[in-house]
Design goal:
Elements lengths: L36 H9 L11 E4 L13 H9 L2 H7 L4 H11 L7 H8 L2 E4 L2 E4 L3 H6 L1 H5 L14 E6 L10 H7 L3 E6 L6 H4 L1 H13 L11 E4 L1
Parallel strand pairs: 1-4, 4-5
Antiparallel strand pairs: 2-3, 5-6
Helix pairs in contact: 1-10
Amino acid sequence: MNNALRLSRSVLQSADSSLKCSMVICHGLLGSKNNWKSISNALAQKNCGTPERYDKLVVFDISTTPKPTIQSLTPIIDLMSSVDLKALGHKNNGNIGMVRNSLMKEWDKTVPNPTMRAFLLTNLGEKDGEIFWKVNLKAIKSCWNQITDFPAELSGRVFNQPVMFVAASDGKYLGQSDLPSVRKYFPQAKIVQIANTGHWVHFDAPNTVTNLITSFMLDKSFDPTSFADVKEIK
């Protein structure tokens, strides 16, 4: 582990202090640990991290197959990189709220979805009056192909434990055509789809996501179709 990085993290204690193993939740590109705070708290209270259920995996709206739609994010990275935060911060007296409001208005045509704009601008940070991006945009751009592709070195390797891929009903990143590729690496995988959700499934349907994960982790006879707004893709 000589090359290990110390990641920013939040540690939530289970309602049962005797449990010694963990559930690890990783956010997506341009996200943060705060995106999962409410669901993480709910799962911690449900004691999902028990030892005999440790080797399970849940994946949200991404596939093992590269998608052309992911390239639609590259202009977003370029847009964020182009902002002169030093000048904008000076203009707004180092007030991060004012900088955020300014960019919300400035980006209204480039990023027409206000929810998307607000999400991107959660990556703004402030320290001693200096405004900065909390994400390393330069590193994301230089490593884009590695970030958006499935690692070639994993070809031929499998994770033969229960896995649940959760797809958005209105998403473009995971669907029925991905099942063969998913099963190539994860033979026991199920792909389930939650109704009326976009790519940020956990944002659009937090209660269903929490209950779905809980059932998957705790119920040995897990049946996703027992949820009214969930269907299994076969």
